[in-house]
Each structure stands twice: as structure tokens, then as C-alpha cells.
């Protein structure tokens, strides 16, 4: 039966990271549990919601953890409840001891708390992913790519495949991340330094956002592995499994065109704030669109919500060239696109009032392109 | 028709303070409006939810406000919407101009936003309070007294009078604030420096908490006035009206007794954290109580929730004297009492397992006493 002592703060950090995979309202009740497994060298915390699973391993060799293992074993504990109890303990360290009938006793300072657990046999087995030939990525770069694309995925289950982000590796070096909800698209490309096996997978955008929350910037690199049904992101202490989406992702390359009629470069934040003002008024009516008018070398934004009021605003540009044009679109899409852009300026290229327009970083610093489909108005 | 310009940040501060009185889900729809009244010297913002009303006046003589009035008038605007629009404006200042048909135009930078308003005649009249012979209080002290007592008021409407805080002035100098929900009571007394008219009023605890949020610590003193149905708190710029509760407040003095059998002094925070641990376990069961056992010059806390687990904890005391005793109570009441205490230590006096126990600051620094009724167990 388990017996160990550990530093409370270190234990809580690992518990809170693992908790990100655990939902208290899961269709499978046992998944509200946290699994604790202890062997002679380490302690592993496991949480899962069926879509993502997190394993967090603390080694006895980790100095800050103060982990002293007296006895091995494994047990299930109600995750939220257990974590609240641990965070309330009075001392900087705690003793964890399993007693009869899947009960545990936590001792810290003068406090002694007994909790009921469950037999670890009740917990489902997580599918294994073979860990050979990893794709090694810089964690920060991978998280940037996720923040640049995952937001554009659909949040509606009518076409489940669009709730995912399409990650591919072609020619062993050409990495691409794409998401679209059929109204807008975001695509980021990257050429890897070293060649590895090609892949073509679709990962729920929500799982990727959880990955970004769990893998802090202190984790320099992440190893990525694939099985037929899962992707595994692994660091020294954390294994993060996400289930893949099944089905064929639509061909997004055909959406990208090279011709355009009008090109404007804006300060990213100034355009975003102008669109946020437009959104406040447009959102109050059913129409919900903003109209951009380009004429006489000047761009103005217009919103008219008969019930509420209207906006007219002249937009500053860094440069503007090409034909005059009037185009209407949902300002939310442009706001979210601009938030995803890290560059100071943004280049927007228009083809026609009924064709999608493209956004790229004004400094062309990244292989990053976004598309937004306009709304037809009369 | 209104026309003025103003500093955006200063205007927003006043708008957000006034908004605290405005609910978007009011039974009287017009109360979701903000009233703006402009005369030659100042601009007044008014918000009300029927229970509390706030008037915020900005003078042209206020340097930071940058208020320049061209034309007087008054108008109603949808409060939340208007405040969101103002906070989105691009420039540090804004021009506000009323045009035909109760519409206004906001100009800031290159942005021009037109909003629909309403005729000010639709707004209900706030009851007047005669402002002679004010009771002048230190704002910080009044807010401290509110935080020490208002939490103990009832949140249930079964006895409406108990949702209030009983404020009285007797013998022209003896100020007292009391609240009870019939399970616990909190009372704070204060002798005023100068004599004023006696009063006896009951104010909804929620209104007093809003007062504390609106009157920042920068406002040194507050003038207090009464009418038959309202209390008015007034500073240089803000008038805060709260409706009084009707009915007789129960006699709470009879609850206070001087005899006791057991007295213990604790470190306030250490006792609070121990009770928070106890609460985590007690709250998981229906029983929901913690048991204190005083024997052999030692105090231990016990919780037993058969479904979940149990707690045993030896409590450190600064001093302990009197008879042995076992008493059970809801730990939430003790946690909230201890949060209201600003002193480093707390003195708790027990009479018997079935009589309320009292809490006072360990250093006797304030005229502050709290009562908590125990729960009878077998």
C-alpha cells in the first residue's frame, strides 16, 4: 500500500496540470478520478476525459519535489476534492499513506485527513502510442502555431472534422497547420530543420488549446508521436495524449489564390480596435456586418444598426493600392484574425466584394496566411 | 441640446461607479438607462435599480476631467451599451453632442458613433432626502464597520428585516451596527466624537456592500442623511441613496450574556485555515458540522463524513482556560466570522454545548462582538 511524503507546492503544481484533463461532469463517472501510481523511483498522476489524457511523473531525483517513497501501489481519488484538500494542508510538506479498504490518510502539521478512494482496476486503460522516431519541436514555436490556427476551427458539431486542426508533414520537412470553419481559414507553414516521417492528422482544436495550457514555456522542446487514433506530446515529466478526429479534411489549398485587385497595409492593433468599436454596434442588430468602403485612396468603415445607432470611421493605412471596392463582413472574424497576428502591421488583399480576402503579416515574417469570406449585402 | 467634451478616462471612472446602481435585468425596463444631465457648470450621471441610486457629478472646475460644456440638456442612454462604446473610443478625449430625435453623436479621433437615446421624462424621480445636520463619518471606518457586520445578515427573504443591517444612534453619540440571520450575529459599537440626532434604521446589507464598492478610500469623509424611507451617503461628487427596510428589528441585546465557562484565544488565521480544511470535508456530507472537543487543556477539531472521509486536527491556542466542553457548529459561520476580524488573535468564549458562543478580537481593540449558535448533535 502506497506511502510517500512530498513537498506540497510541487505536488499541487503537478496535480493542477493533470486536472486539466479531468472533467467532473464526464459521461463516464470514474473519469472524475485522479489515478496515483507509485513505484520505487517515481509517482505518476493520470487524468483523462476520454478526449485527452495527461500523465505527470514526479521522480525521487527531482530535488524540489522532496519526494520520499516508502511503499509502492496505486489508487483512484476524486480529483477535484483531493486537490482542494491538498491545497488546504497547513504544512509545506505532507505524508500520504494508504490504509485498509482503499482509504488514504494525509498528514500535514497537526492535521490528519482520511479520504475514501477506489480500486485502480476500475480505471480505463489509456491506449498506447509507440514512442520511436519522435518529431522534436520547440515548445514555444508549436504553441505559437496553435494560437495562430486553432481559433479558426469550427465550434459546431454539424461537420465534426472542421472542429479539428489539420496537421501535415509532407516531403519529410514541410510542416503545415490549417483550420477552417468554412467562413474563415488560417494556415501556418514551417520547414523543419531535420527530416522525419510524413503524417496527416486532424486534432480537435480544444485538445490543442489544452496542450498549450499544460506545456509551460519552461519546457523547451516537445517530442511528438502518432498512432492510428492518437497523438502524444511528451516532455521529460508530462505525456499528453489527444484522440485524433476521423475522416478526410477538406482540401484547403484550392482556396488560396494569388491574384488580387486591392491591397492595404494597416497597423494591426489600430485596425483591431476600430473593428471592436464596429462590433459593439453591429452585434446589437441581426445583420451584424461591417462595410468597408475603399475609394479616393481612403478606407472607411460603416455600421448601421437601425435600432441602436451607427458608426462611421476613417481607417488609417500604412499603404493602399489598387481598385476601389466595397465589401461587407462579420467583424468578429477580422478581430479574431488580428488577435492571432503577432506582427505590428497586417497586409490585407481583396479580390472582389464576393471573394474571400487574405490577411498576412505586414512584414512577411512568417509563412502565415488567413482567409475571411465576405457577406453578400444589397 | 447637450454638447460637451471630456477626458475619456475620467468620464469612464464616473460611468463605472454610477453603473453599480444599474441592473440590465430590472423589472422596470427604463432603469437599465443612465441619465445624463448637463448644466452650465457640471455634468451629472444618475443610475438606479429602485433599491439604490447613485448620482455622480463632474464639475467643469475638476482639472483632470477636462470637461468643456457648450450646451445644457438631459438624455437617457442604455447604460451598459453606452459605457462599452465610450471605453472603445480611440482618443484620450471625446465630444458628446445631442442631435435631433434624442440621438447623440460621439466623436473621438477619426471615429464617429451615433446612438439612440430616450426622453429624460421617462425616468422615475428619485425621492429627495433633506440635507441638513449631517452625520459625518470617516469613510474607511464606516466601510470597516460594514465589513464587520453586513456579512452576518440573512440572504433569505423569509424574514426580510433580517436581510438588513440595523444602524442606531442613541444618546446622540453611541453608534451601533448589528446584523443577524438568527444563526449568528455580529455587532460593532462606536462612540462618536461629536453629538448628533439619534436614528434607528435598517438598511439592506447588499446596499451597504455597494456603498463600500462605490466610495473608494480616497474619499476621506462621508456625510450621512436620513429621510423616512431612505438613507443618503454623500461625498463631494457622489450621492448614494439606499432605500430603508420597513419593520421592527428584533432586540439583539438580549442575546448577549456575560457569563462563560470556557475561554480560548487562537491565532485568527490559523484557526480560519483549520476550519477551511474542516469545511471541505463537512460540506461533502448532509450533516455539515465540525465538532470541537476541549479536554486535558487541548482543543481538537473533528469532522466525520461517512461517504467521503474524516478530519482530526489538534488546534494551537494562545491560551485556554475553564471547563472541558464538546460543541458542534457549521464551520462556514466560524470562517466568515474570522474573515471579518482584523485582529491577529481571536478570543472565543463558550457557555455550554447548546448556547451561542462569542468571538471578540483577542486584543480587545474594538467594540466588536460576534455570536454563533451551535448545532445540537447526539
From TrEMBL, chains A, B:
GO terms for biological process: DNA strand elongation involved in DNA replication. CDD domains: beta_clamp. This is Beta sliding clamp. PANTHER family: BETA SLIDING CLAMP, DNA POLYMERASE III SUBUNIT BETA. SMART domains: POL3Bc. It comes from Streptococcus macacae NCTC 11558. Forms a ring-shaped head-to-tail homodimer around DNA. It is found in: Cytoplasm. Residues 3-126 form the DNA polymerase III beta sliding clamp N-terminal domain.
Amino acid at each position: 500500500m502506497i506511502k510517500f511524503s512530498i513537498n506540497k507546492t510541487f505536488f499541487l503544481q503537478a496535480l493542477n496540470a493533470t486536472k486539466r484533463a479531468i472533467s467532473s461532469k464526464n459521461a463516464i463517472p470514474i473519469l472524475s478520478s485522479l489515478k496515483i501510481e507509485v513505484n520505487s523511483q517515481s509517482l505518476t498522476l493520470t487524468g483523462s476525459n476520454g478526449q485527452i489524457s495527461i500523465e505527470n511523473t514526479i521522480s525521487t531525483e527531482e530535488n524540489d519535489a522532496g519526494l520520499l517513497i516508502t511503499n509502492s501501489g496505486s489508487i483512484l481519488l476524486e480529483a477535484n476534492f483531493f486537490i482542494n484538500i491538498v491545497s488546504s494542508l497547513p504544512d509545506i510538506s505532507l505524508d500520504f499513506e494508504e490504509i485498509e479498504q482503499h482509504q488514504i490518510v494525509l498528514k500535514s502539521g497537526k492535521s490528519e485527513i482520511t479520504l475514501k478512494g477506489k480500486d485502480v482496476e476500475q480505471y480505463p486503460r489509456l491506449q498506447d502510442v509507440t514512442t520511436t522516431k519522435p518529431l522534436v519541436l520547440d515548445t514555444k514555436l508549436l504553441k505559437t502555431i496553435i494560437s495562430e490556427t486553432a481559433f479558426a476551427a469550427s465550434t459546431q458539431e454539424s461537420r465534426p472534422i472542421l472542429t479539428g486542426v489539420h496537421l501535415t508533414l509532407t516531403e519529410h520537412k514541410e510542416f503545415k497547420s490549417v483550420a477552417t470553419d468554412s467562413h474563415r481559414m488560417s494556415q501556418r507553414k514551417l520547414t523543419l530543420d531535420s527530416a522525419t516521417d510524413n503524417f496527416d492528422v486532424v486534432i480537435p482544436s480544444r485538445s490543442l488549446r489544452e496542450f498549450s495550457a499544460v506545456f509551460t514555456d519552461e519546457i523547451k522542446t516537445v517530442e511528438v508521436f502518432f498512432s492510428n487514433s492518437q497523438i502524444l506530446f511528451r516532455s521529460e515529466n508530462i505525456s499528453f495524449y489527444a484522440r485524433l478526429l476521423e475522416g478526410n479534411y477538406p482540401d484547403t489549398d484550392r482556396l488560396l489564390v494569388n491574384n488580387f485587385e486591392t491591397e492595404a497595409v494597416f497597423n494591426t492593433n489600430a485596425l483591431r480596435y476600430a473593428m471592436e468599436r464596429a462590433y459593439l454596434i453591429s452585434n446589437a442588430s441581426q445583420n451584424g456586418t461591417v462595410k468597408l468602403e475603399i475609394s479616393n485612396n481612403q478606407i472607411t468603415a460603416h455600421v448601421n444598426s437601425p435600432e441602436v445607432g451607427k458608426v462611421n470611421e476613417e481607417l488609417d493605412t500604412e499603404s493602399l493600392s489598387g481598385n476601389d471596392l466595397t465589401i461587407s463582413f462579420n467583424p468578429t472574424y477580422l478581430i479574431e484574425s488580428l488577435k492571432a497576428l503577432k506582427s505590428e502591421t497586417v497586409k490585407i488583399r481583396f479580390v472582389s466584394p464576393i471573394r474571400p480576402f487574405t490577411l498576412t503579416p505586414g512584414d512577411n515574417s512568417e509563412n502565415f496566411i488567413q482567409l475571411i469570406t465576405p457577406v453578400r449585402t444589397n
